[in-house]
Write a structure and sequence with these properties.
heterodimer, A: alpha+beta, FAD/NAD(P)-binding domain, nine-stranded mixed beta sheet, eight-stranded mixed beta sheet, 22 strands, B: alpha/beta, Rossmann fold, globular, Ubiquinone biosynthesis O-methyltransferase, mitochondrial (chain B), EC 2.1.1.64 (chain B), SAM-dependent_MTases_sf (chain B)
Chain lengths: 495, 321
């Protein structure tokens, strides 16, 4: 123990030596001076990281904190992000809680001003069993400028990110490190950080060294920080890929509904069909575009990527509208009659899908997995967003969970400042973990269960599933509850 | 001599970890006294040691001297607890969780009653204030007060191990380390009466004594001393546990025996105090209670919250006229 103390003292001496060296040598990268000590370093300037930065900068209690935001890619301006009329391939479904957060940090107006924001108020979910499926419908979208009641919003990733980062640039205490990544964590040692006044530091790809009281890892599912610190996590690979692309939709010939006010922009329904190979979803975008996210097995994904545009479109239409195959289901029919699984005898064609005009983007794909980190925090380190919890995109909740992390962590940091705590205080960070972990795990497990349920084709499971769905579809309080959940509202309130 | 004392007390406690911690804190306090000038070493010298610090022999001392507000067994108890005190998941977890709430309460109240505080920047509300934390333990509240910018903070505790742990812990934080060096943060091993007798010119803008008075033998006298060291117009903050049936159920049976949140023997119900009694003590010292607020703990979520129910834990703010 005594030796340990000696060691610490030596380290302190070393720092002093380094400091004195500064005056006689030109290599100043490894020295600690006031300039490279930050209160908070946020690694990753994506949706979650940049919202975190805005959230700190926009709060009167925390705006004095010196923040470094490190983003590895080149940052686009808002103008650049909307320069292409065709929407970007990566789109996100934001729930109302996230929109509220955007409003509170004053970026919602910027995002809305791009006119590339599309609210949706209907969700149609069905599967291949020929059953009617489930139809969620919220109130009509009322937009009086301040209050919009929609179930959620579909917006392109880069529009939101660039709006957030343009806001970040307005805060004087936030420094943006563009096109730089984290090279190393410089012998980060939990024990040393916990029991001495030595702050952790990161070395950037340009060999610049930054020290901070708190390092926030917001660098996504493949977090470099997590790898550097060898933080363990569990999860599984779904053996699936999501194939994504952008479509242009045709104009609806909806004669029955002439009285509707928003005939021009009737693109407010989110469609999702659970195929035996995985879910396919059509997310409506502004200006008559739509985004397809098609999760399927690796072979099929490869096949879909290699098809020419026309055949691919055929496949998309088929997958949404094709009747259930009855070839192998004589037993299914018996069971179906017995349990009255399909009382209306629907084929699936009744689901009204907007006409698809054409493909306007290349197809891309990304692998799907679920992952959860047990420790959201280490001494003076905290993970938020996909860095600590990764989900299947089928429920569109990944980013929204990350935003809920941001909300909680910023209020914890605010409390730390108000109550005279170090912002990297272990107990305060632990409180963040205690609040967020149950919420995130709940969502992770629900989505994983849904995935298992819907990719299962056994009669028992389909029967159960459809029975459940028909129940759901006919019991309105229950349905309202689910709409509430999908909007991100908490059902159980303890206070 | 100090070293000898500690190792002796550690042997008595039969805790091998404790001795290491203490050697460490001892070592660090030596670093302080040697690195800074004689002024800082004053605080860890024997000047403030009470007669009770040589604990083995004179445990009867307290009953014979009229000026002592503390019982020796209480000091011994907290001497034992000091090693695990700074562990936020340890035996003092509820206290750790309570701290952010009580700090916020203190700042909010001072904002109303102290002009300086209302004009200070949000993150340094206590700038320009002299504050004392009587019964600081290992410095939970003291550290917060120092970080919030108070120009002078004194942490006072009669248990020597607590003071050593407090000094050691402050060295983990660069800002607090600086504050100790420039003497805006001071830890003293002393009882309130000794402190008053030696430094009777000290006048504080705020006197805090949180979760302390229920461990004090003579609360009336304790309040007398607190009122003596506060400036006219200054604030006194007390938090404690009410003497009710419910407080017996929750603070003794619940917290110590059922949930095992705090060590058995932490509290003694007969030493709990009713707000009414405190009011009369304050009255006789020309102080007025301006606010009373209840605090409630949820053992499942480990979170505190404010309430209007004063039956168990409560906080109060008094002003000296």
């Amino acid at each position: 123990m005594l030796r340990l103390i000696n060691k610490t003292i030596n380290k302190n001496d070393l720092i002093k030596i380094n400091n004195s060296k500064r005056f006689c040598s030109t290599t100043t990268n490894s020295t600690i001076n006031k300039d490279n000590i930050y209160d908070i370093i946020i690694i990753g300037g994506g949706l979650v990281g940049s919202t975190m930065a805005c959230s700190i900068g926009n709060n009167n209690t925390t705006k004095h904190l010196k923040v470094a935001l490190i983003e590895s890619s080149k940052i686009q301006t808002v103008e650049q992000s909307i320069s292409n009329a065709i929407p970007e391939i990566r789109t996100i479904s934001f729930n109302n809680q996230t929109i509220e957060l955007f409003k509170s940090i004053n970026v919602w107006d910027t995002i809305k001003s791009t006119k590339r924001v599309n609210p949706f108020n209907q969700v149609r979910v069905w599967d291949t069993s020929g059953f009617e499926g489930i139809h969620f419908q919220d109130n009509d979208i009322i937009d009086d400028g301040n209050n919009t009641t929609a179930m959620g919003y579909i917006i392109e990733n880069n529009i939101v990110t660039s709006s957030l980062l343009s806001k970040v640039k307005q805060f004087e205490n936030i420094e943006l490190f563009e096109q730089l990544s984290v090279k190393s964590m410089n012998d980060y040692n939990e024990e040393t950080i916990r029991t001495t006044s030595i702050l952790p530091s990161v070395t950037l790809s340009n060999d610049q060294q930054l020290h901070a009281k708190l390092i926030i890892g917001a660098d996504g599912g493949n977090s470099i920080l997590k790898k550097q610190l060898q933080v363990p996590s569990i999860g599984r690979v779904y053996n699936q890929k999501a194939v994504v692309c952008t479509l242009k939709l045709g104009i609806k010939q909806d004669n029955n509904n002439n009285s509707s006010n928003n005939n021009n922009n009737n693109n407010n329904t989110l469609f999702q069909r659970f195929l035996p190979t995985g879910p396919i979803a059509l997310l409506p975008l502004a200006n008559g575009y739509a985004n397809i996210i098609w999760s399927t097995n690796l072979m099929h994904a490869q096949y879909l990527l290699e098809l020419d545009d026309e055949s691919f479109l055929e496949q998309v239409k088929d997958s949404f509208l094709k009747s259930p195959s009855t070839s192998n289901s004589s037993f299914f029919e018996i069971a179906s009659n017995l349990f009255n699984l399909n009382p209306k005898g629907l084929s699936g064609n009744e689901i009204y899908l907007p006409p698809i005009e054409g493909l306007v983007s290349k197809r891309a794909s990304f692998p799907l997995r679920i992952d959860h980190t047990f420790n959201y925090t280490l001494p003076r380190v905290c993970f938020i967003g996909d860095a600590s919890h990764l989900v299947h995109p089928m429920a569109g909740q990944g980013v929204n969970l990350g935003m809920a992390d941001v909300k909680t962590l910023s209020s914890i940091i605010e409390q730390s400042v108000q109550s005279g705590y170090d912002i990297g205080d272990a107990m305060m960070l632990k409180r963040f973990e205690e609040i967020r972990k149950p919420e995130n795990l709940k969502m992770l497990l629900s989505i994983d269960t849904l995935f298992n349920l819907f990719t299962n084709n056994s009669i028992f499971v389909t029967g159960l599933r459809n029975f459940g769905m028909s129940l759901l579809n006919n019991i309105s309080p229950l349905k309202n509850l689910i709409i509430g959940v999908s909007k991100g509202e908490s059902i159980l309130k303890f206070k | 001599m100090i070293y000898h004392l500690i190792s002796k007390s550690c042997q008595r406690l039969n805790k091998p970890n404790l001795i290491n911690n203490l050697i460490k804190s001892q070592k660090q306090s030596i670093i302080y006294s040697s690195s800074s000038s004689s002024g800082s070493s004053k605080f860890i010298s024997n000047k403030y040691f009470t007669t009770t610090s040589n604990s083995n022999n004179n445990s009867n001392n307290t009953t014979t001297t009229t000026t002592t507000t503390l019982r020796q067994d209480e000091i011994d108890f907290f001497n034992q607890q000091s090693s695990d005190w700074w562990n936020p998941e340890g035996t003092m977890k509820p206290l750790h969780r309570m701290n952010p709430f009580r700090v916020k309460y203190i700042c909010d109240r001072l904002k109303i009653y102290n002009e300086k505080v209302s004009k200070n920047p949000i993150h340094l509300p206590l700038e320009g204030l002299n504050v004392i934390d009587v019964g600081c333990g290992v410095g939970l509240l003291t550290e917060s007060l120092s970080r919030l910018g108070a120009s002078k903070v004194v942490g006072l505790d009669a248990a020597k191990n607590n003071i050593l742990m407090a000094i050691s812990h402050a060295s983990f934080d660069q800002k607090l380390n600086e504050n100790i060096q420039n003497k805006s943060l001071n830890y003293l091993e002393s009882t309130i009466e000794n402190f008053y007798n030696i430094e009777n010119d000290q006048q504080f803008d705020a006197v805090c004594s949180l979760e302390v008075i229920e461990h004090v033998d003579n609360p009336k006298q304790f309040i007398d001393y607190l009122s003596k060291i506060v400036k006219p117009g200054g604030s006194i903050f007390i938090s404690t546990i009410n003497k009710t049936f419910l407080s017996y159920i929750s603070a003794i049976l619940g917290a110590e025996y059922i949930f095992r949140m705090v060590p058995v023997g932490t509290h003694h119900w007969d030493q709990f105090i009713k707000p009414k009694d405190l009011e009369s003590y304050f009255d006789s010292n020309n102080c007025q209670i301006t606010d009373l607020k209840g605090l409630v703990y949820n053992p499942l979520t480990c979170e505190w919250d404010f309430t209007n129910d004063l039956n168990v834990n409560y906080l109060l703010h008094a002003i000296k006229k």
